[in-house]
Amino acid sequence: MAENLILEVQHVSAGYHESGLFGRSSYEEVLHDVSFTVHQGEIVGLAGKSGTGKSSLTRVILRLLEPSRGRVIHHAGKPQIVFQDPYSSLNPVYTAEWSVEEPLKISGQYTAAERKRMVHEMLEQVELPRECWSARPDELSGGQRQRVSIAAALIQKPRFLIADEPVSALDVTIQAQILKLLLQLRKELDLSYLFISHDLNVVYQLCDSVLIMNDGRIVEQGPVEDVYNHPKEEYTRQLLAAAM
Amino acid sequence: MLEIRDLHVKFHNRNREAVGGISLTIHDGEIVGLAGESGSGKSVTAMSIAGLLPRKQCSYRGDILLNGKDLLHADRSQLRKLHGKEIGVVFQEPMSSMDPLMRIGEQVGEVLRIHTKLTASQRREKALEAMASVELEDPEKVYRSYPHELSGGMLQRAMIAAAIVSEPSLLLLDEPTTALDVTIQAQILELLKKINREKGTSMLLISHNLNIMRKLCTRVAVMQRGLLVETGNTADVYEHPQHPYTKQLIDAIPTREGRQKWQRT
Ligand SMILES: Nc1ncnc2c1ncn2[C@@H]1O[C@H](COP(=O)(O)OP(=O)(O)OP(=O)(O)O)[C@@H](O)[C@H]1O
Ligand SMILES: Nc1ncnc2c1ncn2[C@@H]1O[C@H](COP(=O)(O)OP(=O)(O)OP(=O)(O)O)[C@@H](O)[C@H]1O
Ligand SMILES: [Mg+2]
Ligand SMILES: [Mg+2]
Asked: How many alpha carbons fall within 13 Å on the CB side of residue B263?
């Protein structure tokens, strides 16, 4: 694996301000002293139970949430993201084709004909049926919507992609197809991924290393084989036992 | 109790029917699983039962009878009466079906406000109880939160709480645990079993996760391209799948052994 760093997260703590009663505002920290790195070509899994801070961590990396301590260093520019809820990343009035083409238009690097070809190729790779290409988000099934948001992120050939539960709404056959696509792109383009999933089997199949999160802390990290075969933390053992 | 007879749904802007003539019965107290490909018509079927089809955008025919009452052709005001009282629905994407400006607790208690004479504090009590039963930690705090302040999995559990709070006789659960890790998933499945056992609630469980179906359902139906390609007792379907797509679904369940196979391709 290349030694080039893509992302460094150093001692990050972060949380949310809530406006309480009588105009008082309180601050609740949900991430505590989180540190890890992502190297070029590496697929890092992030797993842990619901409400533990995984999506909040992606917000910090994307600078949508300001850390109260620590810092985030991007060595390869801004990452792309596939959000957990596809509705929040897709424009409700755009067709599937349009949503995927939009980022290419903004980049201004391609002619209209090149864009069409690239968009169609990508929509085929995520197995979106042709009859859905001109559909708006509310005219798609849950899994179709998710595939459109994956296509819109991947078409930009980002060096670093953050994917928050990207395959949770997909049936196993299409899930397998998407995971293969991610691996193929990594091979071709040396992409890096931060891959969030509550499905430890999927993490095991796809990822090189894994971060296990509990209550806003990374409680265990390392190569997937090590963590899965010799979990150090009781919490990791519980997660693994439940997944089998 | 629920009988679907030859249901067809076709959206005007599509060539193929989203649902191409399916028939399915759910008996009193039964939990039936509906599995199948993404885009095969599972959610459209559930929306037809719930009376939530976008009627202007599609044509539909067939019958959906709930205890003899027609749901497919009933008008909106009749359907509204059934909602929450007789049918509880958990939608596939919780964020899109929640009101972003209303506190979670109020949304969970909403059906009680519409359908019962309970006082505000009794409703609050019931809502908190339902929220605790779906394993939401600190229900009081979640009660006061707005949807955007919850994680994906917390929102999904709030949605389940809202569907069960009024103890409907039929629950439609569209991918109710996709956002949940295995430990919480297991607890939710236990809860659904318990509700089924104690209250006799019938359920239609839509999921692409066959492991979940095996744990919960007495019967499963598998859909592909708008059609039911296989139905049967859960154990039979697992052990002797007949249709090639069902076989594919069972074979494709991710396992740790799968890793080797993949990384090499
Ligand atoms: N905008 C917000 N305002 C206040 N609190 C928030 C906000 N967003 C998230 N939280 C809280 O932060 C905590 C962590 O949430 P986060 O969404 O990061 O969890 P997660 O690990 O992604 O969970 P899931 O697997 O369910 O998606 C939760 O307690 C949640 O209620
Ligand atoms: N409002 C609509 N207008 C046009 N087509 C629609 C509309 N809603 C759904 N469809 C189409 O109907 C088909 C069935 O969709 P449905 O949502 O029932 O799939 P599903 O089986 O629930 O899939 P998933 O597992 O991905 O959620 C899909 O091809 C979808 O694109
Ligand atoms: Mg999340
Ligand atoms: Mg669906």
From this structure: 13
- Three-state DSSP class for A103? helix
Q: Which of residues 211-230 of B touch A (CB under 8 A)?
A: none
Cβ pair B31, B202 in contact under 8 A: yes
CA atoms within 13 A on the CB side of A98: 10
Q: State the number of CA atoms in the 13 A half-sphere of B244 facing the CB.
A: 0
Contacts of B230 by beta carbon, 8 Å cutoff, 6+ apart? B221, B222, B237, B241, B242, B243, B245, B246
Question: C-alpha angle A39/A45/A49, rounded to 5°?
Answer: 145
Per-10-residue mean pLDDT of chain B, 265 residues long, equals 96 95 96 93 95 92 92 84 85 85 94 91 95 92 94 92 94 90 85 92 91 90 95 92 88 61 46
Q: Outline where B9-151 has alpha helix (H).
A: 42-50, 76-82, 94-97, 104-115, 120-133, 139-144
Q: Which of B44, B154, B186 sits opposite A242 (nearest CB)?
A: B186
Q: Determine the number of helices (DSSP H) and then strands (DSSP E) in chain B.
A: 12, 10
| Phi then psi dihedrals of residue A190, to 5 deg | 60, 40
Q: Residue B260 belongs to what H/E stretch?
A: helix B258-264
Q: What are phi and psi of B89, to 5 degrees?
A: -125, 135
CA-nearest of A244, A240, A203, A242 to A224 is A203
Binary contact (B95, A165; C-beta < 8 A): no
Nearest CB neighbour to B252, from listed A88, A173, A199: A173
SS3 of residue B113 by DSSP: helix
In whole angstroms, give the CA distance from residue A62 to residue B261: 33
Inter-chain touch B210–A131, beta carbons under 8 Å: no
Chain A's closest residue to B37, CA to CA, is A171
C-alpha to C-alpha distance for B11 and B37, rounded to whole angstroms: 19
Cβ(B45)–Cβ(B227) below 8 Å: no
The pTM of the full predicted model, rounded to 2 decimals, is: 0.92
pLDDT in tens, A61-92: 999 999 999 999 999 888 999 988 877 789 99
Do A57 and A21 touch, CB atoms closer than 8 A?
A: no
- What's the CA gap between B68 and B35, in Å, rounded? 26
Rounded to whole angstroms, the Cα distance separating B151 from B141 reads 13
- What is the residue extent of each domain of chain B? 89-167
Amino acid at B99: D
Which of A239, A214, A244 has its CA nearest to residue A227? Answer: A239
DSSP code at position A79? P
Half-sphere exposure of B32 (CA within 13 A, CB side): 24
Distance B151 CA to ligand 1 centre (A): 4
Specify the DSSP element, H or E, that contains B7.
strand B2-11
More confident residue, A229 or B77: A229
Instruction: Report the DSSP beta bridge partners of residue B20.
Output: B8
| Confidence at residue A84, expressed as pLDDT on a 0 to 100 scale | 86
Output the six-digit token pair for B127: 């809502």
